[in-house]
Amino acid sequence: MSAPLLQIDDLSVTYWDRSLLGLRANGFEAVKRATLTVDAGQTLGLVGESGSGKSSIANALLGLVPPSGGTINFDGQDLATLRKGFPPEIRQKIQAVFQDPYSSLNPSMTVEEIVTEPLKVHTRMTRVERHEKAVELLKLVKLPETHLHRYPNEFSGGQRQRIAIATALALQPSLIVLDEPVSALDVSTQNQIINLLYERRDALGISYLLIAHDLALVHHISDRIAVMYLGHIVEEGPADRVYHQPAHPYTQALLEAVPLLDPARQRARRAERRGRVTTDMPRLSEKGCPFSGRCPHVMDRCTARMPPAFTVPDGGTARCFLLDDEPNEQGRSKD
Amino acid sequence: MLLTLLFCALFAEWVTPYDPLQQDLINALQGPSVEHWLGTDDLGRDVLSRLIFGSRIAVIAPAEATGLAVLIGVPIGLFIGFRGGWWDWVVMRVVEAVVSIPGIMVAIVIIAILGTGLHRAMFALGILYSTAFLRLARSVVLTEREEVYVKSARVIGAGPTRILLRHIFLNIAPPLIVQVTLTVGAVLLAEAGLSFIGIGVQPPQASWGTMLNSAASFMELSPFLAVPPGIAIVATVLAVNLLGDVLRDSIGRGVRVPSTGAPAQRMLAVPRKATTPMAPHPDDALRVEGLEIMVSPKGEAEVPVVTDMSFRIAKGETLGLVGESGSGKTVTGLGLMGLIGTGVRITNGRVMLENTNLLGLDRRDLEKARGNDVAMVFQDPTTSLNPTYTVGNQIAEVLRIKQGLSHRAARDRTIELIDRVGIPRPAQQADAYPHELSGGMAQRIAIARALSCTPKLLIADEPTTALDVTVQQEILDLFRDLQDEFGMAMLFVTHDLAVAADICDRIAVMYCGEIVETAPVDALFADPRHPYTAGLLSAMPHGQSGKPPLPVIRGSVPAPGHWPTGCRFAARCPYAIDACAKPVQMTGTDRLERCTRADELSLEPAK
Amino acid sequence: MLRLIGQRLLAMVPLLLIVSVMTFSFTALLPSDPVDLIIGDRGSEEQYEMVRERLGLNQPFLTRYADWLLRAMTGDLGTSFFNSVQVKDAVLQRMPATLSLTFGSVLISITVGLAAGVAAGLRPGSWVDRTATFGATIGQAIPNFWFGIILASVFAVSLRWFPATGYVPLTDSPMEWLRSITLPALALGLSTSAAIARQVRSAMVGVLQQDYIRAARAQGLSSRRVVLKHALKNALVPVVTVLSFQITVLLGGALIVEQVFAINGIGSLAITAVRQQDIPMIQGIVLILVLVVMLVQLATDILYGLINPKARPT
């Protein structure tokens, strides 16, 4: 196998609270030594609830926050060491689509200005060439050419997200970071955007890092899925395996928490989970597994130290001692 | 007004009837007369002429000072806002120090260094007011930096200069213009003040401030002397400030271009009879009949957001009101409680809570019914609790006011309730402020407060949408438990069919302000009868497990005011026929649907 | 709460230092030589040197600053160049008049501003709102000293209800004290009343649209209770901020309004000092004014912490 497009190793992101006098004080580690791989032309789904650190990984990858440790190898270069911003050739290759379609487009620019902005920055195209490209980009996201001279506030959420995607495609990047691209949209328009993203990926050979809180949605277009909880990547593996046979208790809890569309089966499931004590105030364990406070399978050693990454039989890894009994234990543990 | 001022300033020599410096001691301190329209001052100079010459300073002075303030303040503000770090820290401390000295004192000190006189005074004021522009520019940069579109620009690879000029600077213009007008006004006032105490414009030169200075000395002899220059100052400052307001409003509009889409045919607000077949039943906790709600957006004609809305909820039952954004589900929930805001109007219908029509109650009775008979839980728990009171205080308040409990009893009951909704250490948590709780905990508190008076009906408006899915599950369980215990009926408003499947007994699906289908929960999922319901079910992320293309409903939800006159879903419906162009009524007995072809279609059930 | 006070007191230190550096270096930039002003044109070279040495002006700038700072920290602000009056005594003697005026106007503007702002904010667009907003706009356009002149000529000169000039210390006669500061405080408080009214109005309009107000109404609490208990406390949060800014405006305004009513406060002291280029006096006045401003801001910060639990350090 050739080298992956993106290889993130031991990445940490820490936010600092500034004290009154501007001196550095408390640090909050949003991402704790995360390791991820994205292969060319593939999609990695990154799933987690609020506060899991999934957006911090995106921000580090996009050069919006400096990592506090680890490496981000992209296309043969370590982005984590580029403290002074990324060089243009890297910038062109990594683009992004953000969650809120209402604030991600500059309200004072027309659609044409928005989608051609990357071309102005990175290419020496003439005005006519840029216009042609803009028309082409709009075609790619299935919007009529007549929209070029309108302003963002004239469009619905779904249409705005298409404009954002067109902008991301302008420079023919090799990786697009999709940070919750459909969670602000209505159910009936979500799938339109998912389908569009899927089509464009296959046609243009782009890789996606798809960040979302909904495992089911991510599963549709991901090749692999990584699950984050409180800064740790707790499970990683082929999309179907993670979705259908989750190995980590947190992934299982996440899947179970989504109500089924079958009321009878849902009733049965609720009856079954009754009596199990859970709370949304996790008792954080400093050294151990962050999920140990809520985990139904918690053991003594879970609170003593963070489990290493164990290999899961059908592919991928999970950081849980439940897998320790497996004969092929070795993992890529670095702890 | 401002034009007059400018005219006077430019052509003072030609307009004035007298030389402003010409003294005539015999005719000193006269009141208004035919010769001297506004009288004369202590040295017998014509007040009107001096007033007109003073306007020249009223134009020059603010222009100088404001120009200087903008030139100094804006670049530095942009720079430190963008650069941050130590530069920012040091400059901001200096600015804080300057603004903590009374402005006039700063000006006095600067004038002490530079000497008195108009231009020096204006230089002083320019430096002083540059702090305002500096802070403005900095704060705009700081807020804009966090905007997602600036983030996007950084991802595209735009350099700092480009981001600053292309993406941020455009947005600084509106507040900047307003600040300019405010500063012009402030400079006018300050110049008058400085001249008044004798360190601005020097006599005998005419400025409105120096005129007031001499007027003050002769207050007892000729009180009128103070009136003309004062009014000139007030009117000018007022005009400048009003100009600022107007500019701000018009600039605000410039950015937000109104939608130019072809307006769909507007429906008329004709009160209609409820068309949904629904007989009263003794078990009904709530019966809504023919509810219609209209909204008047700013400057536009009134449009309906909810029409022909009828449903019932039995005692102890949970009805799910499911719809996408813009379907009118939230405004329905608020409308039932009479909590609609300004610009919203209920134009038709009845809301029968047991035997009382809530819409027919006067304010006092409605306030009595709220809380006691019907209560509500809102979407965002962190904003639906008052941030300035402890959570225990907010529950106890309801118990005291609505139930007449003593402080003591209310406190005890509050802790009981907090314990009941599953919060550990209830007595301690009662003293917490809302921001100290997680979203899930805050929502538990909101639920405890809503149930504190054991209402017959609880309206829950997307109560789990703002929460993580694992927390959502716990809150849904809590609703179920509490319903078993308190026995209230529930109207559960949500956009998520899966959540509705979990919590509801029956579901009403809304689309474009009307219910399109109502059915018991099992029947709805096993056998959806409206194409929109079927479309929603198939579009759910869990509705299928395959790879794309995923099933979609084509098009998007039309906004209120742009609804078709016939079946509102027809344009997006794969089964639409010509007959769908006419308005459709709700039909059926056990379950209801609003579809011409309901009987002939067989639609995909949920997977 | 104690931590908050501690933090704020700590933050005052660098601010005071910066202010002292600024005033000290500004005054060092004075174009004319104060010694010339003192001894006049006819002073001999020797006299000149003697005065220079007495005033410490022959020392290098930094030495002078360090010396002055050290003494200032012990409460000694030096002596005036022109008479042997201690700066501290001179300022403290004039302070009560200026402070009475300022705090009188604070009281007036809080009362007027709050009442007008709440009334306007409850029903945006109503005639009450339009009247109050219009009044506030005009109020902000009126120069306080001119309003003072008008008040004086109507209520003091014509009607003779209040004295036109002068200040009676509180300790002499509380009644006369009140009469002597009523008109000046009214004149001074006008624009701040207007500023507060505008702020309260917009805060009120904003707060009334919040979810928690809707939730309180959904709970069946009466409109009166919702407004007075739930909305007002939240609307006060930005008002406190405005007040802490306005205090410098009011103190500065007091310097001018004092001139209208011939009150011997800090204003006339400052103007004289500037005219005479009395360096120690200017430095002392600025420093003490800043100290007053900071103490007031500390008080508003504490008030802010009291009504806004989010601002309390945890």
UniProtKB/TrEMBL annotation, chain A:
Output the GO biological process annotations, alphabetical, semicolon-separated: peptide transport; transmembrane transport
Which cellular compartments is it found in? Cell inner membrane
Q: Which GO terms describe its cellular component?
A: plasma membrane
What kind of membrane protein is this, topologically?
Peripheral membrane protein
Keywords linked to the UniProt accession: ATP-binding, Nucleotide-binding, Transport
GO function term, MF aspect, one: ATP binding
Q: Which InterPro entries match?
A: AAA+_ATPase, ABC_transp_ATP-bind, ABC_transporter-like_ATP-bd, ABC_transporter-like_CS, Oligopep_ABC_C, P-loop_NTPase
Pfam families, sorted: ABC_tran, oligo_HPY
Q: Which residues form the ABC transporter domain?
A: 6-255
Question: Which protein is depicted?
Answer: ABC transporter ATP-binding protein
Origin organism is Aquicoccus porphyridii
From TrEMBL, chain C:
Transmembrane among keywords? yes
Listed under GO cellular component are: plasma membrane
Task: Show the PROSITE patterns listed in the entry.
Answer: ABC_TM1
- Print the keywords alphabetically: Cell membrane, Membrane, Transmembrane, Transmembrane helix, Transport
Which terms does the UniProt entry file under GO BP? transmembrane transport
Q: Where does the protein principally reside?
A: membrane
Give the top-rank taxon of the lineage listed in the UniProt record for this protein.
Answer: Bacteria
Does ATP-binding count among this protein's keywords? no
How does the entry describe its membrane topology?
A: Multi-pass membrane protein
ABC transmembrane type-1 domain residues: 95-300
Q: Where are the transmembrane segments?
A: 9-30, 101-122, 134-157, 177-197, 235-261, 281-307
Please state where this protein is localized: Cell membrane
Family recorded in the similarity comment: Belongs to the binding-protein-dependent transport system permease family.
- What is this protein called in UniProt? ABC transporter permease
Q: Source species, please?
A: Aquicoccus porphyridii
